[in-house]
Amino acid sequence: MAELKILFATSEVAPLIKTGGLADVSGALPVALRAMGIDVRVLVPGYNQVIAQLVNYQVVATFADLPGFPFAHLLSGTMANGMPLLVLDCPSLYQREGGPYQNTQGHDWADNALRFGMLSKVAAELGSSTSPLAWHPDLVHCNDWQTALTPAYLHFSPGAVPSIVSIHNLAFQGNFPPETVQQLHLPPSCYGIDGVEFYGNMSFLKAGLFYADHITTVSPNYAKEIQQEELGFGMQGLLTSRSGHLTGILNGIDTDEWNPMTDPHLVRPYSSANMSGKAADKEALQSSMGLNLEPDTPLLGVVSRFTDQKGLDLLLEIAPRLSKLPVQLAMLGSGDAQMQKAARDLSHLFPGKIGAVIGFSEALSHQIEAGADMFVMPSRFEPCGLNQMYSQRYGTPPIVHATGGLVDSVVDCTAATLKDGTASGFMFDGMTAENLYAAIQRAVGLYHDTEKWEVLRKNCMAKDFSWQNSAEAYRAVYLQVLGR
Ligand code: ADP
Ligand code: GLC
């Protein structure tokens, strides 16, 4: 019998359905846990994209009378990599044209409370004695607001197992009008400060942070930041009061998926020992992004959701100044309409120097990590961030703002850190366009010092960002919660 059985509840999982880093984590952490002998099963909603990619699935349960929720099946299947998956098949809630959270116009689905209330409710059912499944988890691991109502349901369920909630982003809280408590059939008594109430609304995330047995977040530095007003998004008081049950665990990355030696998206793979392929990948990227084919001009890469969090407004602001330097910029992203337009406009204003692709492209994201010389990530806040880790693995030093997980995963390049072999990127303090510009200038200066640049690249590529250590840390949390 497996040492531990974990139900991992999530609203997205790569490669089936992805809007951001949560999908990457949900696709890789459970695999790393399974490799350690833990029996993990991932629960996700049956969006079109998920149902279409599921192999060998069967109906294992039916939910016909969950009060307030529509009829649904639970499917059991596997992902292509063998990962066992439980899929909540409820076509009226999940099978639509559009994204997991928003319609094709970019507006939140009007029934998101019901959609993710149901996901949370089913996760709680599977973790209580009324579960229709023979497989009983020892613990439910919830992720972000979409599954953070699970601990509240568990609290009021018979024979409930413990739960933990992982915060991937405190800015998304799932706050809805107070009537939602009734609509989702939670006991009215839970609507209070010691419960799901949050500044006059009912909050999925607040519920999780209050009722879960333990809270984790995706970097040690962010675990500290969210206990303070500036980045606590109103939850700092609760988080501080629960600090004895709050652990920051730095995300890992999927080192098979993100491997410059084997990456099928690259025109030429490369390794730290032989970097010649990287030059070919740069040329291919310049060509595909409409940039001048200049091998020695430093090329800055961006792959990002376009949102206030990512601080790209600073980069867009200094882009005209950058275009006067011998520097090129390749941007891939989507989101905020104004930022999309600004990026597009810049590429028209500075043809050959600035390239922008608006959209979501897995292949191009790999090609930018490989083909760029530096990766720009000036996030205002960043719970962990994965791209700065991908870029280091691809020998593309990141230029980052000193916040969240960026502080835990990038070492600023100075004379001292170059000497002791830890330097792996460029970090700026103080969220201003000037400070970002200065950091880019520092990076460009070093780029032209070929010997030092080689040292920096090698440092980056030698770093271990695999999931192994983080998965061990999650296991330790599970065992602690279970008192084993
Ligand atoms: P966040 O989850 O806040 O968006 P992360 O850095 O943790 O930030 O993860 C973002 C993930 O989404 C990375 O895998 C990144 O490559 C991917 N990504 C973001 N935008 C795009 C895009 N436009 N096209 C392809 N991949 C993208
Ligand atoms: C969130 C955060 C990001 C983190 C990711 C995975 O989307 O914004 O920083 O890396 O979740 O944990």
Q: Care to describe what's here?
A:
The chain is α/β, with parallel strands linked by helices and about 475 residues long. The protein folds into two domains: about 5-250 and about 470-480, Glycogen Phosphorylase B (Rossmann fold, 3-Layer(aba) Sandwich); about 275-465, Rossmann fold (3-Layer(aba) Sandwich), CATH 3.40.50.2000. Helix content is about 40%, strand content about 20%. The chain has helices spanning about 20-35, 50-55, 90-95, 110-125, 150-155, 180-185, 205-210, 220-225, 230, 235-240, 275-290, 310-320, 335-350, 360-370, 385-395, 405-410, 415-420, 435-445, 450-460, 470-480; strands spanning about 5-10, 40-45, 55-65, 70-80, 85-90, 140-145, 165, 175, 195-200, 200-205, 215, 245-250, 300-305, 330-335, 355-360, 375, 400, 425-430. The protein has a nine-stranded mixed sheet with strand order 3-4-5-2-1-6-7-11-12, sandwiched between helices. Strands 15-14-13-16-17-18 form a six-stranded parallel sheet, sandwiched between helices. Strands 8-10-9 form a three-stranded antiparallel sheet. It is globular. The mean pLDDT is about 95. It binds adenosine-5'-diphosphate and alpha-D-glucopyranose (GLC). Alpha-D-glucopyranose binds near residues 21, 384, 385 and 386. Pfam families: Glyco_transf_5, Glycos_transf_1. Synthesizes alpha-1,4-glucan chains using ADP-glucose. This is Glycogen synthase. It catalyses: [(1->4)-alpha-D-glucosyl](n) + ADP-alpha-D-glucose = [(1->4)-alpha-D-glucosyl](n+1) + ADP + H(+).
